Amino acid sequence: MLLVVCIIIGCGPKHGDQKKIPIAPAQSGDFLSQTNNDFAFLEEMQRVAYYNKAAFPSFGEDWQKILSEDFLNRIADVGKKTKEQREQARNELREQIRKLPERRLPTRLENPATYFLVSAVNNHIFDATKAIGYQLPTIIIGTLPTRSANARSVPSPSGGRIIVLNTGLFNAVNRFVKALAPVIKIMNSGNMIELGVSLQLSRHLARPQSDVFIRFLDVGLEYLQLSSGEDYMLPGEYLQFHYQMVTAVESFVLAHEYAHAILSHNTEKGDSKALGSSLANDRWMEPEQALHAWIQELEADRLGTKIMLSSVSLNKSVAPEIMAAAPDIALQLIDYLDNARLMYESGEAMAVKPAMDSPEMSLYTVAQNCIQRKKSVNCLLPEQLQSVHRFSDHPPGSLRRDSIRAFCKEEGLFYEEKNRIDIGSAFAELIQLMWPNTVRVYAEVRRRKPPVK
């Protein structure tokens, strides 16, 4: 229950509460980083990321006390009318915190609530990967305390892999799903939830004066540090859907990174300091480098989706149609955050999907054809793209969604079953309806941007 609350309202100290890394002397063996070189490498990456781009302070050795105080202050009293009710809620929270898994944290800079949450998802993905016959290198996971909404797989000193997830990813997923959840009609039936969609409802929610539109805007503004990101509670009937959808998105993200490891994709290399700095940022590449990176991203999307869908039978807490929507939701979020940053920094108003004659569409077509011909090496870059200055290190999310859906259809995966609600298309349709007004708002925000001195 505690980890469910973490997802619903967010965990940890508020942004900027601490600037000094709260590390106290620890007894030998309190943290895995004290006895394991891979975890020590991860801790150094976290330390560098914290100093360079920290937004979500780490907890340090007193994590249980900090987590307890923060939770008690933020949520115990919500909806409680009497003193007795509030005290009972606080006691229940204290007990839940006390019962958190009694195991060592990986490093002295790890966020415990986020780590325990992602560890639970990781167990399902690990089991699903083994169940479908893939051999895995040694994999450890951890988080970086930055606002960046991405994840990466990097080599570890022992020859395995370290999967690092920026804490901003969890925050953005939580807020994004919360903002758009009302487009799904929820019918609770005992422990089950029935889902529905309505075009009329989407048009109503897309109005500029609606709470959904305002909260959708705030996801991007908080990512750009232009909003404080004040949190809110969803109506009770949406809590199950929100929890399941967030868990599903995190499953896809982890499965995607597992796929990079299984496929032995080339990833960033370097010492812990260099990686700690670079992993907290987005990357731009020359066209030839970008083609190679895009091929690997599309390959990891395909295998990651297969692993994620295989985990449905292992993770009974997530409905199959919600798990199936996870790639769509994750990639729509990435697109939105990329576009929000571009609109604010450059004033360019991007379309929800690249135009057919755009450089991005041309590069995607080449990458997709390379994968389908199973020639991910030595694919040639078209001459007309060689003069394009640079591309992002990942294809636009809308094109990755197309690639995943085509792969699922080829493989006969249950994306195409007619009796399943298409949650991803419902979210996409709502974003499409809100996009013209979104562009107008960001243009006004940019116009009011303080001049650079």
Overview of this protein structure:
The protein is mainly alpha-helical and about 450 residues long. The chain has one domain (about 1-175, about 240-445). It is built from 15 helices and 7 strands. The strands form 3 sheets. The protein has a 3-stranded mixed sheet, with helices on both faces. A hairpin with a 5-residue loop joins strand 2 and strand 3. Helix 5 packs across helix 9. The longest helix has 27 residues, at about 320-345. The termini are far apart.
End-to-end C-alpha gap: 49 Å
Mean pLDDT: 78
Profile the largest sheet.
Answer: 3 strands, mixed
* Spans of at least 5 consecutive residues with low confidence: 1-28
> What's the number of extended β-strand segments?
7
- The helix fraction, in percent, is 40-55%
* Series of H and E elements: HHHHHEEEHEEHHHHEHHHEHH
Principal-axis shape: globular
How many independent structural domains?
1
Which tags fit this structure?
single chain, 453 residues, mainly alpha, three-stranded mixed β-sheet, two-stranded antiparallel sheet, 15 helices, 7% strand, globular, disordered N terminus
Give a topology summary.
Layout: H1 2-9, H2 37-53, H3 63-74, H4 83-98, H5 112-131, E1 139-144, E2 151-155, E3 161-166, H6 167-180, E4 184-189, E5 192-197, H7 199-205, H8 211-223, H9 239-262, H10 272-278, E6 284-285, H11 287-310, H12 320-346, H13 359-372, E7 391-392, H14 397-411, H15 423-447
Parallel strand pairs: 1-3
Antiparallel strand pairs: 2-3, 4-5, 6-7
